[in-house]
Amino acid sequence: MAKLNESSDLPLDERILAELRKDGRQSYRAVAEKLHVSPASVMQHVRDMEKKGHILGFSVDLNYPALGYDLMGVIHVTIHKGALLSVQREIAKIPEVVSVYDVTGDADSLVIVRVRHRAELSRIVKKILKLENVERSNTRVVLNVIKENYRIQPLEGIVQG
């Protein structure tokens, strides 16, 4: 199977995305050279994908432990019926919260937090429990991260007009 950026059979949008996933800081000119197209073409395709919502933005991947955020908490939150979205929006405002998911199962929401120490985790859990319509929570501490990668490969066939 050919790599995404090497296969000219794949749509240009997908080949551009493959390059940007490797290095989102590279210039349109660098991407264009690798894909044998013009920089203007790359720029236009990126703008089009942004307008369509395929590209939400460009960000930096942080090494949380290196920044002192050694502790990751996974908090399962049960929310009173009818208040799910409003409570999730409030939880999402907490700076240490990196993800809020609407899930199935015993809990209504799954919250991922990154903190420096247990006291911070305790403070955040208590803050969540104080929110109106939060019934209960169940917190787990991540001991080791085996894999954490949001750059899913391949993206073949996902970019559609």
Question: What's a quick, concise take on this entry?
Answer:
By secondary structure, the protein is α+β, with helices and mostly antiparallel strands. It is built from five helices and four strands, in the order αααβαββαβ. The N terminus is likely disordered.
What features would you describe in this structure?
34% of the residues lie in helices and 19% in strands. The chain is α+β, with helices and mostly antiparallel strands. The protein has two domains: 4-52, Arc Repressor Mutant, subunit A; 65-142, Lrp/AsnC effector binding domain/regulation of amino acid metabolism (RAM) domain (Alpha-Beta Plaits). α1 (12-22) crosses α2 and α2 (28-35) crosses α3. The model is unreliable at 1-6 (pLDDT under 50).
Percent helix, as a range, is 25-40%
Q: Work out the count of structural domains.
A: 2
Compressed to H and E, one letter per element, the order equals HHHEHEEHE
Main sheet overview: 4 strands, antiparallel
Distance between the termini: 24 Å
Strand order of the largest sheet: 2-3-1-4
* Number of distinct helices: 5
